[in-house]
Amino acid sequence: MEHWEFVGRADELARLRSVATSESERGLILSGVAGIGKSRLLREAVTGLPTDKWAVFSASATIASSGLPFGGLAQILPPDPPAGLSPAGLLRWAAEALHTAAGDCPIVLAVDDAHLLDPPSAALAHLLVREGATLLATLRTSEPVPPPISALWTEGLVGHAELAPLHTDESQALLTALTGGPVEAGSAQRLGRLGGGNPLLLRELVMAAVRGGELLPAYGFWRWTGRLMLAPSLAELVDARVGSLTAGVRDVLELTSFGEPIGLPLLLRAADPADVEAAEERGLIRVTRDERRRDVSLAHPLYGEVVRRRCPVTRARRLLATLADLVEAVGARRRDDLLRVAVWRLDSGTAQNGALLLDAASQAFARFDIGLACRLASAAHDATTHSPATHDATTHSPATHETATHSPATRKTATYSPATHETATHSPATRETATIHKRAIHKPGARGPGPAVELLATALLFADEPEEALAVLDASPEDGARWATARATVEFFGLGRPEAADALAAARHADPADAARITAVESFIRLQCDQASRARELAVGVLGNPAASDSARGLARCVLAFLAALAGDPDGACELLTTAGADSAAWRRDIPALQYALQMCEGTLASVSLDLPAIDRIVTAEFATLAQIGGFGFGSGWVSLLECRAAWLAGRTDEALRAVEQACAALAMTRVYDGCAHFARALIAAQRGDHALARSSLEIADSGAGHATGLYYAWRQQARAWTHACAGDPATAVRLLLDVAARLRTAGFRAVELLVLYDLVRLGSPELAAARMAELAASVGGRATPLLVRHACAGTEGEAHLAVAREFSVLGYQVFAAEAAARAVQIFRTDRDPRALGASTLLADLLARCETLRTPALLAVQPALTVRERQVAELAAGGVRSREIADRLFLSPRTVENHLQRVYTKLGVSGRNELAPALRLLPQ
């Protein structure tokens, strides 16, 4: 990790090399902040220049050399200048020395940190450019530049450009290079955001996280816990960039770090305008325009971490209270001001409004900022019960961040104070937080858990801390439907206990609204346990209960939407989900987990409908971004599984495998859905021909599978069947699929049954599926259904398979398209039909769009050739005559013909003109 390969900066690197080798351009100077990668980029640019064509002189100026004549370029000049020369003579001597060393080659002068050049060295660089040399140099932003260097671009002799921070993709590539392996998507985004596109700071972040045990491997990915370890080297780097501060500029920096992004008018009211100007001039803060507003934020995310941690507790509390007062004084008009003010009040010890805190907790939870939702929900309960221990239990020093608080996800989508940025939402810090919450929530004489405690318990559940969530509930009096449903939710989704549904069924509540709430949650749990009939009955009962709340109705609609999706009624499912989502403001606080239930329903509908546009909408929506960046394991894993599904259908199996392994990493801490990710991994591995990975994934999944994911038994059996097929046991695969199809038929899950039956078609047994699939065509919606059925019923009509393949391809189902085309090729070859050539060409084009695929349908047209057979076939396909092939390979012409006949038989072609497309179908 001390050294890493050069990544990113492709455009900048190409530009530098273009200038270095250009006959018309005389140079390029790059400016940038410390650590942005200027020096490494400059080295990479000149390293590849051929020394026989260009005379490359590289120097690096330093503070130590800046006071010595020619000290900045001493590395490239002769050691002993002649005595008695005037300054002008010395300049001429130095220039002649470099021209002599260059000989007839053009000079390329590469100077790192040119702002530190001493005056003679700067003058020499200027003179060399005027005499035809090319200058490539770097400068540090906001540092004074020697006049001879600045004159080069002001006079138009060389170009000048600002080196921007790394893009997101480049930061992620650098993370991979630093860790030596892929980094889980959410972790990569959070680390990349903290690094701010600065390679040096990102490197220090990663090294600190690895040394502190906060960046850990999981299923082939590095996963960050979210806890930020500010190593001394990292803090020193930030200190060097911030530099010494006056008291006024320090106040500006602290106010901005606690309140960013903060409106410029508010900052000017809280601090001296002259100090605000000074901070902006020094590059410590950045003013951006958002429509009619001007917001101020720190120039780099890590400035805030260092500033907040070093700010004394008393001053931090004063500044936070000041920020809250300022925003409240102008009416808290912005969308996120409620959350900002609540956080500031909480951290300043001035939080007394329980309703404000609860509203803010709900808002934080809605954005999957789990740690902050825990803190705010706990504080809301404390304020409601008027406990004197409220602030002692829930308020911590913003400077030390000992409590898990809001994550980078919030900072992207909200505008409240990042006073405790970037700490884990589900890290070991959350365990500390939960213990604090347990102490704070247990209030003698309290009347019941209330929405604050339920929200806290749900947030802890989403943070993969189900035991802590149960402890929170147990510390509250057992009173009412809210307590019962919160506990059942934690027990089932956190600990995988299906008996939680029975506990709800046994609960008795006279109030009809309470009864409807309990019934709705029981219905959702019954659904997950594969008790579909009972789940439907309960959900319908909730919708028929006039006393049912909006939240209970929303959850019931999610259950019915799940069932409609599985039954093949996408339109009905969409209508139910739209109605449930429209009431989100009403139910978000009442049943917090409903928000995730809605996302699960939408994803399931898109998955079973093979609706690629819908999957794309889900994975690019705000939920996916928040889930991945915020470290929300349930949500991040679910999004990754959908990404895997879409990539696999499109034939991008490398991408699908990466996505499913990200899901395994994201769900590693959960106890209920971890197995689902490994079953999906087994399925992808099997269809890539990797039986060892498929088998090991099944073993992991089987060891963790329980009754809590009974609804997903079809996916498990499909993975098992494909693993058997990959191992060369199609008979067992067919038997497993027939068994699960029969079970799905009994349950009425027609959409899933159709997909399972289609697997039989793909495995070469369409006769076992075609009739039933034709029956299902009338009741299963979705644009993929007619094509699946037509493929199953195509029989031995090669042209029918070919037509289906083309239509599959248009819809984006490249795997299905390739397999249909392969079947057409197989039929045409068997019949010695000349259409085999066109079918082979189509199949080759489809496979070119796909990554690794080793399914039975494709292997049937990809027979193994010996090395010699392949050599002969490739030469023959290239138009080489048999006698020439014999001469090249030292064979007899008869042996060549024998090889060709065996190749024709294996590939099912009739002659040389069909060899080229047939060979393209074979793996390289």
UniProtKB/TrEMBL annotation:
The keyword DNA-binding applies. Transmembrane segments: none annotated. Keywords: DNA-binding, Transcription, Transcription regulation. Residues 436-445 have a biased composition (Basic residues). The keyword Heme does not apply. One of its GO terms (biological process) is regulation of DNA-templated transcription. Residues 395-433 have a biased composition (Polar residues). SMART domains: HTH_LUXR. Residues 858-923 form the HTH luxR-type domain. Residues 385-449 are annotated as: Disordered. One of its GO terms (molecular function) is DNA binding. This is AAA ATPase-like protein. It comes from Couchioplanes caeruleus.
